[in-house]
């Protein structure tokens, strides 16, 4: 299943500058695993060693927040990666 | 607080709005708003709040105006270069609207002074450029019961949310903790100059709405702006019961300073330290085992000026490119002022680099103490 993933600005260095990429998978875990295949290192920036979403980051499937990686992702959904920004 | 004839003339377009009118304008006149950070966000927020007749406006910033600020910080101009921002901003706002009082706070916000500074204000706008300040401001607002309008920017992306204690989530509900290490530092990534104009103006809008009790504030709704696609997205954010500051059993009951920043003078096991003249001497000595030089600044900073022997591995790519680090010999890590390079040293040490050494004071120290012709971005 294919979804759209919108990547937070501080992580664009992993996606060659792309703000929007395609993801595949039926859960958030699968989608992030798919991203990791193509953009090595990006998953670790979002998920810690205990498979928890990092505390300076939020993941949403469409407008619904995902608190863990088991969240289902449907075809055509948009996964939003929102990261704490520091600039002022 | 009644309006004078001069104020009625100045604010007549507000008075013509039934949603604001004289009662709203009088509330604005009585309002006391503190802007933390007179930068890209604080500039438009301050200008619009001053123009709108916000009676007392505090400007808090301990930096001076630099030429690279002027691409986005519209509160300042070329004539104000090198002046303290709080003072230069105060003068500009006083010229814009002599009917209001502007207070310059040329200081760094700390746990030790935040209570005294915030005591004179009813509403806080956060436009600071450090995550540590953002957490300090949030915690103080929760603890002292002050509404907060917080915005942040990075490259082409901005975020804004309004936090009113007791009426919704706080910043820690949104992002419980700051990131560690190299990922934290994104201030060097660059920013589209007009981006903070949009976000700072939204902050002023929220402030005016809160003061005049007009409209629906951005409580519990994170607004994300993508300038490249000209897209606003909104996300609902719930209060966290386990929030460290506004939750049911808060761990943070007093504002506190963050863990000490990774100061260049903090000794760390396994990481060497080198001054700029020390590095010069080492490079000039012609030692058989010349040190490897890794410059961890972003490419645009590197391109402005760098040591000829240096390899550029920016912090944004550092985690992915650890494999390129030399495993043998001494490796000197370099950045602008010594902070990012120290974090790079720590990552390199964990990754098995033999002798990571931090250039203390970074390229600024090199330019100041060794080579004044070295341009530093």
SSE topology sketch:
The complex is a heterodimer of chains A (88) and B (377).
Chain A: E1 2-6, E2 20-24, H1 28-38, H2 42-46, E3 57-61, E4 64-66, E5 78-83
Parallel strand pairs in A: 1-5
Antiparallel strand pairs in A: 1-2, 3-4, 3-5
Chain B: H1 5-10, H2 12-15, H3 21-30, E1 32-36, H4 42-52, E2 56-60, H5 85-96, E3 101-105, H6 111-118, E4 123-126, H7 131-144, E5 148-154, E6 157-163, H8 171-174, H9 195-212, E7 221-226, E8 231-236, E9 272-274, H10 276-284, E10 292-295, H11 299-304, E11 311-312, H12 315-318, E12 330-334, H13 339-350, E13 355-359, H14 362-369
Parallel strand pairs in B: 1-2, 1-4, 2-3, 4-5, 9-13, 10-11, 10-12, 12-13
Antiparallel strand pairs in B: 5-6, 6-7, 7-8
Helix pairs in contact in B: 4-5, 4-9, 6-7
What features would you describe in this structure?
- The complex is a heterodimer of chains A (88) and B (377).
- By secondary structure, chain A is α+β, with helices and mostly antiparallel strands.
- Chain A is globular.
- The mean pLDDT of chain A is 93.
- A 5-stranded mixed beta sheet of chain A has the order 2-1-5-3-4, with helices on one face.
- Helices cover 18% and strands 27% of the residues of chain A.
- With 377 residues, chain B is of the alpha/beta class.
- Chain B is 33% helix and 17% strand.
- Chain B is built from 14 helices and 13 strands.
- Chain B has helices at residues 5-10, 12-15, 21-30, 42-52, 85-96, 111-118, 131-144, 171-174, 195-212, 276-284, 299-304, 315-318, 339-350, 362-369, and strands at residues 32-36, 56-60, 101-105, 123-126, 148-154, 157-163, 221-226, 231-236, 272-274, 292-295, 311-312, 330-334, 355-359.
- In chain B, the strands form 2 sheets. An 8-stranded mixed beta sheet of chain B has the order 3-2-1-4-5-6-7-8, with helices on both faces. Chain B has a 5-stranded parallel beta sheet with strand order 9-13-12-10-11.
- In chain B, helix 5 links the parallel strand 2 (56-60) and strand 3 (101-105).
- In chain B, helix 4 runs parallel beside helix 5 (85-96), helix 4 packs parallel to helix 9 and helix 6 crosses helix 7.
- The longest helix of chain B is centred in the middle third of the chain and has 18 residues, at 195-212.
